[in-house]
C-alpha cells in the first residue's frame, strides 16, 4: 500500500454494494500512503459515489495552497453536482477556504451564481451560495482595519450590480440606429450623463476579473465598442492605485467554453514554468457572469489579418517596434525568440485541446512579439471547416521564422517537443479536470462527454515514451507545414485550403 498511485485503481475495483467489501476497502484506504492532489481530483468524479471516499479526497485537497486551488476551482464547483448531499464535505471545504481569501471567495461566488440557471442542479448551487453568504457575514473585522464579513460580502454583491448596469447600457447602445461610431457616441454620452455614477463609484468595487484590484469608475473617453454583431463594450476602469484596467464586456454569447480553455492555457503555462520553460503565453482573464454574458481582460494587440493587410508580413510589423540592423531579419533577437516561443506554446496547446476554427482574425500579436489565440467556440476536435490540420500553424508564422529550412524554425520545433513531453507528464491532472467538468453545460463537452475525453486522451499518446513522442510530434509539425508550402510536396494538400 506504499504505491500511492494505485489507490484510485483499487477503489475503482471495489463492489460498493457489498457492505463487507466496502467496509474493508475503506479500512485499507485509511492505511494507504497519502495520494497526490492530482489523484484526489479523480476521486471526486461521478464514478465514486461513496461519501467516505469523497471526504478522503477533500482531506487530500486541503494540502493544496490557494494558488493551486484556484487552478482547479472551476472544476471543483462542477464536482458539487456529483455529491450525495447539498452540504457535502466538498461544499464546506470550498466555503472555508474562501473565507480566508477574498479572490477565492469572489470566483467561487461567480462560478456558483452562473450555475443557478441550470434547473437540474439549481437547488444544490443555491445551497452552496447561501452557505458562503452566511459564513462570510459572520466574519469579524481585523485589528488592522480589515473589513468585516458584511462589508466583504457587499463588495462582492456590487460586482453583480455593476454587470447588470453594463447589460442595460448594451441594450441602449444596440438600439441606436447607425454605424459603430454613433453607438460609441451614445455609450460615452450615457457614461457622462444619465449613468455618471459609473464614472465615479460611491465606493470602490473589486474587479470581477481580478478581485485583488479595486476599481473606482469608468473613463468614458477611453471606452468604446467593437465592430461586431454583438457590439461588445471595451471599457477602461480607473483603479484605486492610480492605474487603469481595460476589459471587454460581452452580452449574447456563452463564454463558459472560452473560460475553460483560457483556464487550461493558464494551468499549462504554470506546468511548463514549473519545469523552467517559459513560452511567453498570454493567459488573459475570462469570467462568465451569466449564461450569455461575461468579461474578458483586454490585451493591447492586433490580429494577424490586420497586420498582414497593413505591413505585408509579421517581420516588417515587428521591425517597427524592435528594430535591430544586426539582429535576425532586422529585429532584436529577444523579440524573435519571444515570437518563436509563443508560437510553439500555442501550437502544442491548441493541438492537445483540439481547438478549431482558426483564422487570421483570431490569432493576435502583441508589440513585444507574443502571439496568442482568442475565441474558442470549437474545441476537442470540432471545427466548422473540413479537413482541419492537426497543428494550427499558418504560412505567415513559419515565414516569420525564416521558413521551414531556417535554424529558428528548428528551434521552434524543439520548443514544441519539449513542451509536449512536459504536458504529457501531467496528462492525468488535465484528464481528471475534464472528467469533473463533463457534467457541465459547456457545449462541446456536453454533446458527448465520454467521446470528448477520449479524444483528449488520444492527443497525449500515452503509449509512447518521450523519445518516440518527440518523433511523433515532429512528424505532425512537418506534415502540417508541408501542406502550407505546396512546392515542398508533389500534390497540393487539402490542409492548405484550411487557411484560405
Offer a few descriptive terms.
3 domains; Phosphatidylinositol 3-kinase Catalytic Subunit, Chain A, Domain 5; Phosphatidylinositol 3-kinase Catalytic Subunit, Chain A, domain 4; single chain; globular; three-stranded antiparallel sheet; Serine Threonine Protein Phosphatase 5, Tetratricopeptide repeat; seven-stranded antiparallel sheet; 500 residues
Describe this structure in words.
This protein is α+β, with helices and mostly antiparallel strands and 500 residues long. The protein has three domains: 6-137, Serine Threonine Protein Phosphatase 5, Tetratricopeptide repeat (Alpha Horseshoe); 151-252, Phosphatidylinositol 3-kinase Catalytic Subunit, Chain A, domain 4 (2-Layer Sandwich), CATH 3.30.1010.10; 301-499, Phosphatidylinositol 3-/4-kinase, catalytic domain (Phosphatidylinositol 3-kinase Catalytic Subunit, Chain A, Domain 5, Orthogonal Bundle), CATH 1.10.1070.11. It is built from 20 helices and ten strands. Strands 1, 2, 3, 4, 5, 6 and 7 form a seven-stranded antiparallel beta sheet that branches. A three-stranded antiparallel beta sheet has the order 8-9-10. Strand 6 and strand 7 form a beta hairpin. Helix 6 runs parallel beside helix 8 (122-137). The longest helix has 26 residues, at 149-174. The radius of gyration is 25 Å and the shape is globular. Residues 487-493 have low confidence and may be disordered. Its EC number is 2.7.1.137. This is phosphatidylinositol 3-kinase. Residues 219-485 form the PI3K/PI4K catalytic domain.
Amino acid at each position: 500500500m506504499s504505491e500511492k498511485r494505485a489507490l484510485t485503481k483499487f477503489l475503482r475495483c471495489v463492489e460498493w454494494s457489498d457492505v463487507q467489501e466496502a467496509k474493508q476497502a475503506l479500512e485499507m484506504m485509511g492505511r494507504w500512503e497519502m495520494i497526490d492532489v492530482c489523484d484526489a481530483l479523480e476521486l471526486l468524479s461521478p464514478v465514486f459515489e461513496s461519501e467516505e471516499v469523497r471526504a478522503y479526497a477533500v482531506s487530500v485537497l486541503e494540502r493544496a495552497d490557494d494558488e493551486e486551488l484556484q487552478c482547479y476551482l472551476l472544476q471543483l464547483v462542477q464536482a458539487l453536482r456529483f455529491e450525495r448531499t447539498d452540504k457535502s464535505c466538498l461544499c464546506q471545504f470550498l466555503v472555508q477556504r474562501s473565507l480566508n481569501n477574498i479572490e477565492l471567495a469572489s470566483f467561487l461566488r461567480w462560478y456558483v451564481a452562473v450555475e443557478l440557471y441550470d434547473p437540474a442542479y439549481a437547488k444544490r448551487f443555491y445551497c452552496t451560495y447561501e452557505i458562503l453568504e452566511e459564513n462570510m457575514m459572520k466574519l469579524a473585522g481585523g485589528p488592522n482595519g480589515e473589513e468585516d464579513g458584511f462589508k466583504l460580502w457587499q463588495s462582492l454583491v456590487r460586482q453583480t450590480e455593476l454587470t447588470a448596469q453594463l447589460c442595460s447600457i448594451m441594450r441602449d447602445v444596440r438600439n441606436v440606429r447607425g454605424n459603430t461610431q454613433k453607438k460609441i457616441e451614445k455609450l460615452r454620452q450615457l457614461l457622462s450623463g444619465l449613468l455618471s455614477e459609473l464614472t465615479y463609484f460611491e465606493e470602490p468595487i473589486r474587479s470581477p476579473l481580478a478581485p485583488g484590484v479595486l476599481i473606482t469608475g469608468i473613463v468614458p473617453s477611453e471606452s468604446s465598442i467593437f465592430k461586431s454583431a454583438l457590439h461588445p463594450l471595451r471599457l477602461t476602469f480607473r483603479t484605486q492605485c492610480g492605474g487603469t484596467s481595460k476589459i471587454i464586456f460581452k452580452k449574447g454569447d456563452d463564454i463558459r467554453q472560452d473560460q475553460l480553455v483560457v483556464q487550461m492555457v493558464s494551468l499549462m503555462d504554470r506546468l511548463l514554468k514549473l519545469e523552467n520553460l517559459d513560452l511567453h503565453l498570454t493567459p488573459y482573464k475570462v469570467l462568465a457572469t451569466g449564461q450569455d454574458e461575461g468579461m474578458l481582460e483586454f490585451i493591447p494587440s492586433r490580429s494577424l489579418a490586420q497586420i498582414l493587410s497593413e505591413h505585408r508580413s509579421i517581420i516588417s510589423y515587428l521591425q517597427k517596434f524592435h528594430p535591430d540592423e544586426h539582429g535576425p531579419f532586422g529585429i532584436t533577437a529577444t523579440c524573435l525568440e519571444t515570437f518563436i516561443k509563443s508560437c510553439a506554446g500555442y501550437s502544442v496547446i491548441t493541438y492537445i485541446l483540439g481547438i478549431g476554427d482558426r483564422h487570421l482574425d483570431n490569432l493576435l500579436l502583441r508589440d513585444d512579439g507574443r502571439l496568442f489565440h482568442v475565441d474558442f467556440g470549437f474545441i476537442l476536435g470540432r471545427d466548422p471547416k473540413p479537413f482541419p490540420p492537426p497543428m494550427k500553424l499558418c504560412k505567415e508564422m513559419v515565414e516569420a521564422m525564416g521558413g521551414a529550412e531556417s535554424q529558428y524554425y528548428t528551434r521552434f520545433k524543439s520548443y514544441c517537443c519539449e513542451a509536449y513531453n512536459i504536458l504529457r507528464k501531467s496528462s492525468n491532472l488535465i484528464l481528471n479536470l475534464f472528467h469533473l467538468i463533463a457534467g457541465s453545460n459547456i457545449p462541446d463537452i456536453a454533446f458527448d462527454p465520454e467521446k470528448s475525453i477520449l479524444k483528449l486522451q488520444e492527443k497525449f499518446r500515452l503509449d509512447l515514451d518521450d523519445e518516440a513522442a518527440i518523433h511523433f510530434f515532429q512528424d505532425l509539425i512537418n506534415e502540417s507545414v508541408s501542406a502550407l508550402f505546396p512546392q515542398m510536396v508533389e500534390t497540393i494538400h487539402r490542409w492548405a485550403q484550411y487557411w484560405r
